Amino acid sequence: MRRFFVDITDLNQDKVTLPPDESKHAAKVLRMKCGDQMEIVNGKGVLFTGEIIDDAPKSVIVQKLDYIQESPDEHHIHIAIAPTKNNDRYEWFLEKATELGIHEITPILCKNAERKRIKPERFQKILVSAIKQSKRLFLPKLNALTKVEDFISQHPSGLIAHCYEEEDRNTTIAKSLSTNSSQFTKANTPILIGPEGDFTLNEIEKALKNQYQAVTLGKTRLRTETAGVYACMAVKQYFEEQ
Amino acid sequence: MRRFFVDITDLNQDKVTLPPDESKHAAKVLRMKCGDQMEIVNGKGVLFTGEIIDDAPKSVIVQKLDYIQESPDEHHIHIAIAPTKNNDRYEWFLEKATELGIHEITPILCKNAERKRIKPERFQKILVSAIKQSKRLFLPKLNALTKVEDFISQHPSGLIAHCYEEEDRNTTIAKSLSTNSSQFTKANTPILIGPEGDFTLNEIEKALKNQYQAVTLGKTRLRTETAGVYACMAVKQYFEEQ
Predict the structure, then answer these.
(1) Could you tell me which residue ranges the Ribosomal RNA small subunit methyltransferase E methyltransferase domain spans (chains A, B) (predicted)?
(2) Which of A62, A128, A196, B122 falls between 20 and 30 A from B140, CA-CA?
């Protein structure tokens, strides 16, 4: 059954009017009619099943039949990652990270930034589309573009992945989370992924002074967006095995 | 330093003539001149350093200065994965898998195939470009499109990831490799990733009869190309920690 996204907060409301873009998609693209059933997610853990009772293209109305509410995951995957020069690549990261179960994303602004401006509305659409496709019920939270120094101050403690050979980064994500399990809790461990030109030594030093631990993402050199997906996967695997 | 790809087999040859596309890129796009240095990889573990002695756009000639030869990895990551309807997605997989260290890729043709024809030359270019960018010295091997039943016959033993709830697939890739380490050696464990419509029960049955083990890729539903990258990461992590 097709899945649509509507920001429904009142779970008991009887009817739902689809927003313009979803209405148009249902009525004009998919040619859905009165009587057709659909699923609606609100991005907050709820999955509604409903039936179309008005198929007007600009405002399709759905009669709610039933709903289920899912509990959020106990763990929380938060990746703070520098926007890439090429937007496609960052959008790929957003989609893949969502499929893999990310909970929170913060685009970070670093000294070696390749891109200093982003389009949050576009990124939000990617996330919504990704939860529909991957059957997730919780929409990842997308934060505003944040200077990396400010992020570090706001999030005392986390992990930072960088590529400097000389700096000590023998630990993998799994080992770091496991060795410091009281400090790095399920809910509280963002991972910093830098731009193609890497973090500066100052940025790394600031992180380390703020209880961040440096980690390695393996022996091969990864693009920013690949590093983001790899980190997401490593954290997911770690918490799923707890 | 810029990296170029030339299929050099004679390591002792003194001069290298770049093929037309690489020549053009060096001479016209990057405007490199006589005296400029460059790196050349042959995809077989060798990294040459050389200096341009003839910068004619159609046939740049490079004087070899030095070379290093790397040993291949001890482990071998082989993903057999169904081509996706959207080529961009499959090309993302090829690029990401290469960054992550994949050694061999076989596009497989399944009953629920969304795409039955592929462009191997285009895929090959993606792989070459990916090894240059990720500083890898070995070019992953790209096999011809192969029917999944034939692949299973040619590769007795491996892992198969599928989405059927009823079928037993409690094991993760790491657990499967670890529990059956005599059967699933570092060099001998391809992983089958199916199309969006999944493998058919017949295809899974054939695999299981041929000593394949069914694995799960986690709790969330992944697109084909995401599953391919995830499997690649999981195998890489497993072997890097041995």
Answers:
(1) 74-235
(2) A196
Q: What is the ipTM, given to two decimal places?
A: 0.85
Distance CA A141, CA A153 (A): 19
To test the contact with chain B by mutation, choose from A3, A74, A86, A100 the residue with the greatest count of B C-beta atoms within 10 A, namely A100
Reference B55, options B40, B36, B69; nearest CA is: B36
- Give pLDDT tens digits for B183-240: 777 777 999 999 999 999 999 999 999 999 999 888 778 999 999 999 999 988 888 7
Q: Cβ contact (<8 Å) for A99 and B226?
A: yes
Give the model's pLDDT for residue B166: 65
Residue A61 sits in the same domain as residue A82: no
The string of pLDDT tens digits covering residues A150-181 is: 999 999 889 999 888 766 666 888 888 888 87
Number of domains in chain A: 2
Q: Residues B104, B10: one domain?
A: no
Across the interface, of A99, A100, A226, the residue whose CB is closest to B100 is: A226
A102 to chain B: nearest residue by CA?
B220
Nearest residue on chain B to A101, judged by CA atoms?
B220
Structure-block tokens of residue A191: 């991972």
Q: Are B58 and B28 in contact (CB under 8 A)?
A: no
Q: Do A100 and B220 touch (CB under 8 A)?
A: yes
**Higher pLDDT, residue A169 or A95:** A95
- Residue B52's domain is classified under what CATH number? 2.40.240.20
Query: Which residues of chain A lie closer than 8 angstroms to B240, CB-CB?
Result: 218-219
Q: Pick from B48, B69, B90: which residue ends a domain?
A: B69
Residues B54 and B126 in one domain: no
* Percentage of the residues of chain A whose pLDDT score is greater than 90: 75
CATH number at residue A144: 3.40.1280.10
Per-residue confidence at B171, pLDDT binned at 50, 70, 90? confident
Measured CA to CA, the distance from residue A104 to residue A146 in angstroms comes to 13
Decide if B136 and A220 are in contact by the 8 Å CB cutoff.
yes
**Last residue of some domain: B69, B92, B122?**
B69
- CA separation for the pair B62, B52 (Å, rounded): 4
Range of the domain at B87: 78-240
